[in-house]
Structure to design on (776 residues):
């Protein structure tokens, strides 16, 4: 244990660049998680916002005209309606002469106080009517309310009049008015829940993939070191401990960085969304202005646990490797080929030809990179498509703000994706350092080096593009169908489908292109700056 | 994956520190079946110096890796100090390697994140000794790396790295020392000094030394010389 920790600390000390980049990628993942939580919170809030039917409305029945006028004059009343839109007024029932009042959003607690004053002044509670034929319905509704609120004032068998009165008072004064679970669950739940679950599932899948990929690539990059440690007598368990310690250190460093990232993103978001205010001066689709510290730490624990689990999984995948296969460093290209006597290495053309076949020789690495990127790309693409579709939905401020937030989420997820795929593609490119160094040593120019590296990046781009489009198509289709069925919307027209498909292709190109080349280009910049011999020795 | 091995036991004289029987390592390159090491038999007694010579690609290093338990053979057995290396569980083999075996790699394999001193002391830490060995200072002086102990491998020349690797292999005073071309990166004078050091250590500790080398002059100083050609081992 002690020796593993010692080694992990030395590793961090000696490779600050690698540590910082790993911590940054982890922080990016954590930031996406925090933003996702804020985003979901905002969605819930949007769902209970005053523009939606049934929310923050008080219902009164059989009020006198004098009472109605009094209510209309109250400052906390936004709008009033004389009839309930879906239920016809039925004479002699609870639905007779329905009077609906929408309260202002800014200060619900204040509205509740006003409401109580109103009730007391006008004596509305004492005069509330009910009809026996609705008793059963009321009972079931109130029972649902009772369960939701866990309200001790409402009990089974209580006379409906008392129950109604108690509930009215409770509803007005209770804290639940601020975020009414009852409303959310029963009225909007059928549209929210499937999409919420699907989106959360996708996001979690994406984040798990990101963490696993990151851990796997880091592990692979250290193969030779692990081989040396094994040769010196390190046990498998000690190697695992080294990895776990390193993961813990990276996660610990990622927490403050992600807090900073989130703070900055939220500030920028507020700056951008400031002009989008509703007519009553409130912003109801918004993320929390202050990042919840508890959520941050909870998610940080989740990230750390996921990273540790990923370390264990990656370790288990390689547990049976022999010491020599670690020492040889899987997937790395040994410069020793130059000393081989094969005629293909007798001249520069032979070496170049051999290097051009790198993609064929490194099939495993290429396909791994393709899968990594293809798994990670559809999510930012999906967010972008959803964001753009929101923009055209309607002119309300809520839609605009919602679209901006989706764009934010798209960028955050994309940056995370780019960090991970950049790391993967850079490792892929770095593994050719010795080979490319030899090409330079035998007289190859910079353009020669590019000529044997760019085609492979282009190949990666093509492969990822096709896969990402396929995955994104399946996700978007499933998501759209889900929403359409849940909200009973009409199917999309062919033109809409084509536009959506075109947007998918454009976003795929925009997202996949940088990831395919970023690692290679950043590697080549460093490669051309270093002495050739350093490249051959693979010293970065 | 660790292959299932036969449990057949053979009687090994106590004096035979290293014994290998019918050792074979083969793999496929495309559709071609290549035998890197082909049915090798070898016995080295305690305190002996055995040199293995041969052309590049003849399988010397592969054989040495298997003899030290770093690589698994396709078939055959290796007994070190009377123990069947590939019948041991991983934990036991790791302990055995850290306490009984020293290995000098052709390409050093120093840990890039540790200084020279830390690289050397790591071997000792793994073996379970926590005290600072005076032997480290002696070794460092003898190998002329005493002024480089606080440098990272990337700050040292190939020859210096090689000498650190030698110090690391010797720090635990192993019973058996495997060396894969230990003088490959050294000049003539340094080579001579290193060989002298290895032979002195061997004499002092009754150590068994198995060395792969290209240098015939070094091989000539060995008690026994083996040649390797196309994966086949023969004693000269």
């Amino acid at each position: 244990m002690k020796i593993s920790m010692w080694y992990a600390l030395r590793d961090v000390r000696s490779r600050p660049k690698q540590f910082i980049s790993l911590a940054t990628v982890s922080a990016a993942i954590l930031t996406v998680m925090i933003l996702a939580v804020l985003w979901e919170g905002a969605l819930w809030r949007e769902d209970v916002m005053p523009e939606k039917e049934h929310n923050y409305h008080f219902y009164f029945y059989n009020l006198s005209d004098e009472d109605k006028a009094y209510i209309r004059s109250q400052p906390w009343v936004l709008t009033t309606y004389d009839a309930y839109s879906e239920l016809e007024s039925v004479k002699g029932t609870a639905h007779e002469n329905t009077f609906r009042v929408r309260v202002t959003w800014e200060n619900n607690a204040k509205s509740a106080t006003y409401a109580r004053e109103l009730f007391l002044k006008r004596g509305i509670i004492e005069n509330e009517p009910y009809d026996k034929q609705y008793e059963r319905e009321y009972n079931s509704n109130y029972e649902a309310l009772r369960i939701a609120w866990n309200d001790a004032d409402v009990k089974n068998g209580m006379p409906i009049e008392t129950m109604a009165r108690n509930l009215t008072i409770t509803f007005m004064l209770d804290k639940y008015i601020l975020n009414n679970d009852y409303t959310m669950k029963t009225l909007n739940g059928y549209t929210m829940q499937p999409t919420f679950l699907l989106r959360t599932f996708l996001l979690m899948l994406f984040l798990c993939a990101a963490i696993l990929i990151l851990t796997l690539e880091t592990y692979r990059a250290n193969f030779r070191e692990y081989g040396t440690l094994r040769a010196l007598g390190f046990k498998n368990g000690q190697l695992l401990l080294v990895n776990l310690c390193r993961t813990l250190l990276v996660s610990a460093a990622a927490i403050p960085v992600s807090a900073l990232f989130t703070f900055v993103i939220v500030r920028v978001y507020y700056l951008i969304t400031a002009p989008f205010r509703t007519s009553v001066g409130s912003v109801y689709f918004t993320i929390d202005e202050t990042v919840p510290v508890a959520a941050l730490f909870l998610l940080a624990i989740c990230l750390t646990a996921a990273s540790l689990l990923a370390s264990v999984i990656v370790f288990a995948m390689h547990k049976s490797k022999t010491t020599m296969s670690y020492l040889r460093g899987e997937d790395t290209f040994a410069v020793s080929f130059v000393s081989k006597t094969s005629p293909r290495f007798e001249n520069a053309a032979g070496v170049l030809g051999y290097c051009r076949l790198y993609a064929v020789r490194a099939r495993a690495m290429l396909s791994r990179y393709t899968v990594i990127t293809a798994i990670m790309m559809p999510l930012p693409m999906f967010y972008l498509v959803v964001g753009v579709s929101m923009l055209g939905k309607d002119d309300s401020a809520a839609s605009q703000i919602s679209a901006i937030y989706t764009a934010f989420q798209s960028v955050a997820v994309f940056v995370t994706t780019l960090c991970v795929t950049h790391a993967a593609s850079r490792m892929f490119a770095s593994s050719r350092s010795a080979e490319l160094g030899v090409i330079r040593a035998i007289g190859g120019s910079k353009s020669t080096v590019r000529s044997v590296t760019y085609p492979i990046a282009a190949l990666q781009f093509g492969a990822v593009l096709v896969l990402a489009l396929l995955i994104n198509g399946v996700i978007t289709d499933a998501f759209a169908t889900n929403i359409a069925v849940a909200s009973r919307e009409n199917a999309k027209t062919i033109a809409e489908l084509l536009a959506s498909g075109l947007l998918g292709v454009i976003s795929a190109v925009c997202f996949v292109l940088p990831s395919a080349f970023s690692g290679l280009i950043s590697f080549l910049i460093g490669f051309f700056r270093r002495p050739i011999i350093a490249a051959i020795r693979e010293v970065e | 994956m660790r292959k299932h091995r036969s449990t057949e036991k053979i009687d090994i004289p106590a004096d035979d520190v290293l014994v290998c029987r019918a050792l074979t390592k083969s793999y496929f390159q495309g559709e071609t079946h290549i035998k890197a090491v082909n049915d090798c038999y070898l016995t080295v007694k305690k305190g002996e110096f055995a040199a293995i010579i041969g052309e590049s690609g003849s399988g010397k290093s592969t054989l040495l890796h298997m003899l030290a338990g770093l690589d698994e053979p396709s078939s055959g057995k290796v007994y070190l100090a009377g123990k069947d290396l590939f019948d041991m569980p991983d934990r036991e083999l790791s302990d055995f390697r850290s306490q009984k075996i020293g290995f000098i790699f052709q390409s050093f394999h120093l840990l890039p994140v540790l200084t020279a001193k830390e690289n050397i002391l790591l071997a000792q830490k793994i073996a379970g000794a926590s005290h600072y060995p005076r032997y480290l200072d002696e070794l460092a002086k003898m190998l002329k790396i005493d002024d480089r102990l606080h440098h990272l491998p990337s700050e040292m020349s190939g020859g210096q790295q090689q000498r650190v690797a030698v110090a690391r292999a010797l720090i635990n005073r192993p019973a058996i020392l495997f060396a894969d071309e230990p003088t490959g990166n050294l000049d003539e004078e340094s080579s001579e000094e290193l060989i002298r050091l290895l032979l002195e250590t061997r004499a002092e500790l009754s150590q068994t030394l198995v060395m792969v080398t290209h240098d015939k002059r070094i091989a000539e100083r060995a008690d026994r010389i083996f040649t390797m050609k196309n994966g086949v081992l023969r004693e000269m």
User: Anything to note?
Assistant: Chain B has a mean pLDDT of 86. Chain B touches chain A at residues 1-2, 56-57, 65, 68-72, 90-91, 94-95, 97-99, 103, 105, 109-114, 118, 122-123, 125-127, 152, 154, 168 (CB under 8 Å).
